[in-house]
Automatic annotation (TrEMBL):
Residues 44-98 form a coiled coil. This is Uncharacterized protein. The keyword Coiled coil applies. Keywords: Coiled coil.
Length: 106
């Protein structure tokens, strides 16, 4: 009978130890899950940040291209204005020269 009680005590003790180990395993699993979720959350933030950066870089490239186009257009117009000014200056000189020949000043 004593042997049986000792065996039952040992079984109960082993059962308690298994429950304790099971509880630790559950706690570890929960901790690992929380860590994995946190890492995934950080990765999502990082990916969102990279995506936002890529979108900004794309918009910046578009704006740069647009500004280059505007700069070329402005240069073209400045060249046209410069050419017109030269024409007007030449016309003014011709007119002044013709007026001087006739004795009329402008």
């Amino acid at each position: 009978m004593k042997l049986r009680e000792t065996a039952e005590d040992r079984c109960a003790s082993a059962d308690q130890e298994l429950k304790r180990i099971d509880s630790h395993i559950d706690l570890l699993y929960s901790t690992i899950s929380s860590i994995m979720y946190a890492i995934t959350g950080e990765e999502k933030k990082s990916l969102k940040s990279l995506l936002a950066k890529a979108e900004l870089e794309a918009r910046l490239a578009e704006e740069k291209q647009h500004l280059e186009h505007l700069e070329k257009e402005a240069r073209r117009r400045m060249d046209e204005v410069t050419a017109k000014l030269k024409e007007l200056e030449a016309l003014k000189q011709v007119t002044e020269s013709a007026g001087a020949k006739q004795g009329v000043g402008i």
